Amino acid sequence: MSSAGVPIPVARPGVVLPIPTRSQLDAFNVNREGWEAITNSLYDSAAYPAAGTTQLSFFNLPLGQGTGFGGGTKTLSDTNMTLAGQMPANQEFLIQRVEVRFFPTVPAVAAANPSAVGAPAAAALVNDSYLAAHTGNLTLTIGSKPYLQEAPLLKFAPCTNFRVNGAQSDSSTAGAGQNVRTVFAYWEGRPYILKAPLRLVSNQNFGVTLNWPEGVQAITNPARIFLSLEGVFYRRSQ
């Protein structure tokens, strides 16, 4: 429902939306007074070392700081935080869902790619993903209080994944085996939806930690973890 009381068409799978009327267009205007709400998550990422770690912190290193996927400082491919651990003035966020994405073998290790020839090193994709999914716990802190504490990390399976369908073949000689393998693993499950959404206001400190108090969980190759707070992003209109 718009601020003027005019019903707003809502997109749903399999539903063809009617064309908005002229009066309904005002609800979608990007130049207006007050606040606007857009679909945009808050996300951050961190490297998971092969030797394991006891804790990873998220949302405390904004753009231009820390170490990103490419080895330099963080870019928009790593995080969309502009301040350390807080929303800037005139921005707010409503947290509705939490997702954790585990990407094994980052940076890429050629012998452990999803499809490769030779020794079965790619099994690390499965083993590392399994180990990370069934250990650890997550804590979301706002201000000085935890508002979400859950374990294991598999509870936060993402809504998207990388699916692999493949076939195997083998061509062997007396000198070498040429087994071609395709193997991959990903976390899957229902979204972790907050039944009571959480509001982040401007300049309110917050953060998320992944913790392994049971001890470090070593994996075969370095990995990367993306943590995403899904919901509604609010900001002042133009």
In terms of topology, how is this protein built?
Blueprint: E1 35-39, E2 42-48, E3 55-58, E4 91-103, E5 115-117, H1 123-133, E6 137-142, E7 145-150, E8 180-182, E9 192-200, E10 206-211, E11 223-236
Antiparallel strand pairs: 1-11, 2-11, 3-10, 4-9, 4-11, 5-8, 6-7, 6-10
Number of domains: 1
Count of DSSP H/I helices:
1
| Topology pattern, helix = H, strand = E | EEEEEHEEEEEE
Largest sheet data:
5 strands, antiparallel
Coarse morphology: globular
The count of DSSP E runs of length 2 or more, i.e. the number of strands, is 11
Describe the structure.
There is one protein chain. With 238 residues, the protein is mainly β. The protein has one domain (38-236). 5% of the residues lie in helices and 32% in strands. The protein is built from one helix and eleven strands; from the N terminus they run E-E-E-E-E-H-E-E-E-E-E-E. The strands form three sheets. Strands 1, 2, 4, 9 and 11 form a five-stranded antiparallel beta sheet that branches. The radius of gyration is 22 Å and the shape is globular. The chain starts with 34 loop residues before the first strand and ends with a strand. The mean pLDDT is 84.
Quickly list its features.
238 residues; mainly beta; five-stranded antiparallel sheet; 1 helix
Brief overview:
With 238 residues, the chain is mainly β.
